[in-house]
Design brief:
Blueprint lengths: L3 E3 L17 E7 L5 E4 L8 E6 L9 E9 L3 E4 L7 E10 L1 E2 L2 E3 L2 E3 L10 E12 L2 E3 L15 E3 L12 E3 L6 E3 L25 E3 L2 E2 L43 E2 L16 E11 L2 E3 L20 E17 L15 E15 L3 E4 L12 E3 L2
Parallel strand pairs: 8-11, 9-11, 10-12, 11-19, 12-20, 14-18, 19-21, 20-21, 21-22, 22-23
Antiparallel strand pairs: 1-24, 2-3, 2-7, 3-6, 4-5, 4-7, 5-6, 13-14, 15-16, 17-18
Amino acid sequence: MATFLGWGNGHDGSATGKTGTVNTYAAMTASAGDPTVTTDLSVSVGDYVFLHQTRIATGGGACEIVRVASIGSGTFEATGNLTNTYAALSQAVLIPQYSSGDISGAITGTDWNGTTGGIISLICNGILTVSGSVTINGGNGSSTGLVSNDTTANGGTGGGFYGGYGYVRAPENDYKRTQAGEGYTAAAQVIATANGSGGEGGYVQGSHGNGAGGGHATSGGAGSGAETISGGGTSGTADLTTMTFGGGGGGGVRSTGTTGTAGSGGSGGGIILIYAKQLIVTGSISANGGAGANTSDADGGNGAGGSILIKTQIATLGTNLVTAIGGTTGSGGAGGDGRIRIDYLTSYTGTTNPTISAAQNTGLTVPSGATFLYNLI
């Protein structure tokens, strides 16, 4: 697991001027103790690839970075055996290798689509400045179109795990439960509890119910209604050797009358990995949770913050410019905090929200005549 690899060759040049999506994604499978990765991701020898078990019934979040040694038909071989097994709903993410530069525009990852996306990953073997933004925030919930009996609003999308849908139902006094947000164990679904890290959907008798918040580093806030509506549970680890998206918020539900609105849950923040010899942040790096839709009848739960992992020798992070916070809008449950981690060699300064987990790593050195080495996930 703790394998030293060359810290990139800078073949993608300067990061200056880079905007939009800089990663490519593909589904993949692989087995622990074997170097073979089965995927349609287009790679070249020497590329770095982030492997991530994004969702699985037994708990997601396993991850590692590998370097491509050789390429086959629908496969590539890593330079060493893999630490983890990757089943269905795992993805391979090609990482650009920059030499230095200033990200003055906006870098955004491809949003999670239920199979791939939701991740931004960058490697830089020089000084990387972020004066613009690196963002994979969750999307807000919706109440659009909820004007008649038996209608739903799709859950919030964008960033990480989806929010649960909002639901309007007649006649009065009809019991109804709506959808819990997506979590690390399962897609958004109607379930009488939290959905792993996904917040439980609202439940009503005769009025309305608000969805619960998604969870991550902390549990999501409770919803409200005819019974206890549980917030999403925690996931991942503080050192981000296991990392997940933020959990989606549960949907709101209205059960009175033939018209009205109900908000869907916000989606969770995604994942950001930045590995740079030196990092300076004057702009923003964010993986925040989305807001649940706030309506006059029933509110969706808020999405939880995602994961941000920084590996560097020296970092200047500014004051709360790096964030992975949960949404807090409306009467739905608040989204849980995300996780922010830095491993550094010499020093780091600055604060983050939530508070960063930090550890000095003496392995982050540059031996004479060698490229920057990093103790990868």
